[in-house]
UniProtKB/TrEMBL annotation:
Gene3D superfamilies in the cross-refs: DD-peptidase/beta-lactamase superfamily
Domain of life where this protein originates: Bacteria
Pfam families in UniProt: Beta-lactamase
Source organism of the structure: Saccharopolyspora kobensis
Protein's recorded name: CubicO group peptidase, beta-lactamase class C family
Annotated Beta-lactamase-related domain residues: 20-401
Amino acid sequence: MEIEVDPGEVGFDAARLRRIDRHFAQYVDTGKLPGWLVLVTRRGKIAHLATHGMRDVESSAPVRPDTLFRIFSMTKPITSTAIMMLHEEGALELTDPVSDFIPSFADMRVYTSGSASAPQTRPAGEEMRIWHLLTHTSGLTYDFHHVHPVDELYRRAGFGNGLGSRLDLAGCCDAWASLPLLFDPGTAWNYSVATDVLGRIVEVISGQTLDEFFRTRIFEPLGMSDTGFAVAREDADRLATLYIADPQGLARRHPQHDEAHAAAFELPKALSGGGGLFSSAHDYHRFTQMLLRRGELDGARLLGSRTVDYMTRNHLPGGADLESMALNSFSEARNAGKGFGLGFSVVQDPAAGKVISSAGEYAWGGVASTAFWVDPAEDLTVLFLTQLMPSSTHPIRSQLHQLVHQALID
C-alpha cells in the first residue's frame, strides 16, 4: 500500500495531516499504545498512510503496512453486508422472525426480576426479527458487560471469553436462545451477540459455512486476501501482538496472549460474525471503499446502491438516538447524536456528539481500539488499526476525528 494522491489535490493540507502522526506518536512514546497504522482517503484515493511503533514491543518488530490485526467487532459490518446480500436475493425479509431460520429462538422469554441464580421471566411481547439483530435491539447481550443478571447467565452458560469454545456456531445460538432476553425486541439498544446470530443465519440460508460465504462472496470479489477467521502460518510474523491497558492506561502484553496467538492459526469451532476476523489495512480499506462507492469496487458489486443507503440510515424506532435507547453497557461508540443503522452507528447530529463529523457518517470499531468511518458527505474514509484492549482506554476515535477534519481545507 502507498499514498496515491497529493493531499492538496483532494482538499487536504499535508502539514495538517502530519499532526495525526505527531499526536498518536505520543501515545506510543509514552507507552499508551504499542503501535498503530492510520489510513485516510478522499475521493477514492489514499491521501495519508502512516505507521508508528511496534506490532510486537518485546521483539521490536515494527508496525508495517502489511501487519495483520485482530479487528474484533469490525467483523460486524462484514456480517451485516452478508445478510443484506441475501436480503437482495429475496432469501429473507428484515421482518422475518429469527425462529424461521433458527427454531430455538421461538417463544423467547424476557427477564423481569431476580438474581442470576433465580431469574424471573415472562413471555416476550414481540418476536425477535432480523432487523432487531442488525440494530442490536434484539434483547440479547454479551457476557462481558457485567451490568445485568442476564450477563451473568451468559457467563454461567460458558460464554466468559466470547463464544463458547466447546460449541459450534449453531450450538452457541441454541444456548443463547435458552437464556432470557434483557427486554422485548425493538424497545431498547444493547450491544450483543446479535451479529453472531446473523452469521448463523447466513450459514442456514446459504448452505455454506460463514468463512466460505465470506471468502467466496465478499473477500475474493474485493481482493481481500488477508482477511479470515485464522491466520496462515506463513504469515505468522505479520500478526500483531495483543496488548491490554494496565490501571495507568499503559499497554501491557495481554495475559492470554500466548493462548490467543496459538489459536490464531487454527479455524475456531464457532465462527464469530460478531468479532472473529483478522485483517490488514489493505483489505479493510477495500471494504470501506466498496461501502463509500455504495456497494461496488473495481467492477465487483456486492450490494445495490440503494441497499447501502438504506443500511446507513438510522433504523432505531421513532428516529431515536443511542443516547436515549442504549442500556448502561459497553459500546464501541459515543452515543450522543448517533443512531444505528443495519450494522453501523450513524451520525444524526454532529453538534450533539461534540466531535467534528458529518451527518450521515457511519462507522464502527473493535475492542482492541481499531476503528473506521465512512463519510459520504466529505467523500472520505478513515481507518485506524492497533491492538490495545479495551477500546475505551483512550479517546482515540474522537481525537482522530478532530485531527482528520482539521486537515480538510477545501
